[in-house]
Amino acid sequence: MAKLIYMMNTSLDGYTEDEQGGFGWAAPKDEEVHTWIFNHVSSFRTCLYGRKVYETMLYWETAHTIPDQPQFVLDFARQWQAAEKVVYSRTLTEPRSAHTRIERSFDPDSVRKLKADTGHDIAVAGPELAAWAIQAGIVDEFQMRICPVVVGGGKRYFPSGVRLDLELIEERRFRNGEIFLRYAVRGQSE
């Protein structure tokens, strides 16, 4: 059975975006981080997105057309374009990328079925979408890239009112002060 993995960037104080909705502070600023992230996420061939994250990721649909892109950017663009994407949105009328479908509402049972029927891990991105999956008890793993910035408020990585016991299964430090952490959910009853 596939794992559902919530992977997002977060500030040191636990926010995925600041109070103004910005998250530019989380953009990787050096090639070491870019390359590592792209290699790491290349294993996800199915991605569940909230609308805002999807619209941000649409950059990768045409990134290969921008002149003088480094090879690691071109490689990731091809991987993203080939991935299956499910976007949860009440406002989008049609997808703007290949291999994409729009769902109007989040259905935990359909995600459970997707996990059971899929031979590879599935990424979920977007704090609101992930909150629904966390509250439904279907997230198996948390992966966070912690950026060395405190933003003071905004949209939290974890939803309120949820208790989870986690086990650290991977950590990586980068020269620029960023840290990647990977946790498995203990006692998951899937």
From TrEMBL:
One of its GO terms (biological process) is riboflavin biosynthetic process. Pfam families: RibD_C. InterPro entries: DHFR-like_dom_sf (IPR024072), RibDG_C (IPR002734), Riboflavin_Biosynth_HTPR (IPR050765). It comes from the Bacteria. GO terms for molecular function: 5-amino-6-(5-phosphoribosylamino)uracil reductase activity. SUPFAM superfamilies: Dihydrofolate reductase-like (SSF53597). Coiled coil: none annotated. Residues 3-175 form the Bacterial bifunctional deaminase-reductase C-terminal domain. This is Deaminase. The lineage of its organism: Bacteria, Pseudomonadati, Acidobacteriota, Terriglobia, Terriglobales.
